[in-house]
Design brief:
The complex is a heterodimer of chains A (197) and B (110). Chain A has 197 residues and is an all-alpha fold. Chain A has ten helices and no strands. Chain B has one domain: Arc Repressor Mutant, subunit A. Classes of the chains: A mainly alpha (197), B alpha+beta (110).
Chain lengths: 197, 110
Amino acid sequence: MPDWNRLISERMGLLALSGEVRDEVVAELATHLEELYQASRARGANESQAIEIALSQTADWQKLGREISDAKNEPGGMNDRSKQFWLPGLVTLTASMVWLMMLQRVNWNLGSSWFHGSPPLMAYLMWLITQPVFGAAGAYLSRRNGGTLIAGLAAGIFPSIALLGLLIFITFTGVFVERNPFVWKHPAFFALVVFPG
Amino acid sequence: MIRTELKRGTAELAILSVLENVPLHGYEIARQIEEQSKGALQFTLAALYPTLYRMEHRGWLKGAWETAANGRRRRCYRLMPRGRKMLQPMREEWANLFRVMRRVAKVSHA
């Protein structure tokens, strides 16, 4: 019986793979050729014919080695979760934050307009009003990358999730690390701002 | 919309389909595809394994060494949830392609 591992190793040369992975690939290809060899023998081929049939599975072993290495080391290893959730989510968060920075630079002095809020409050209000646009963009990016409805929704509300996480972190740090009494003295802040947020 | 990757997905769809209900090793995957296509689709070693490894790398399949009753060790591939999720959209894309080709090129079923 032919030593398939040796025959494959000789033909394919060194793959750009670690020793263990390379050995595993060679062993797997060897089992495939062995099956082919046995099938050919069962159909009546003599030993040399069966070996020849098995080895004719590829005309260029070096090329096969390169293709297998490429497949195992496929670049752009961005998986579906990254493409459908993390990337759209982070793009949405970045765009949303850049938009907030731009709004904060605008002169919101509207004089005798209908709105009497302070300029910073105006900037935040405008930012909040436009958030659905960023959410929709995030959901669109996710869906375009093949994301499910839930992934699209999660990517769309990613800025809210991130900011809520930040708020919770700051609050807990304030309460348990800095011992800031604000939290206990202003429970309405949490009831009306944090939890709805 | 028909994606440009559709053509490249031929082998992937065939592999996902034969693994839908049962885990198989490489040789058996090639044999099943050949048998089910009545010899029209033939996967050589050179065509099969780069595709299998790519699909495994993407998390669509998982290969694991198993020992058969006759003591022979083989690497069997099973469909992962991510691969299963890909199957239906790929089938729909193919159905869409056939629909379009029938309309455009007057291609009909054999």
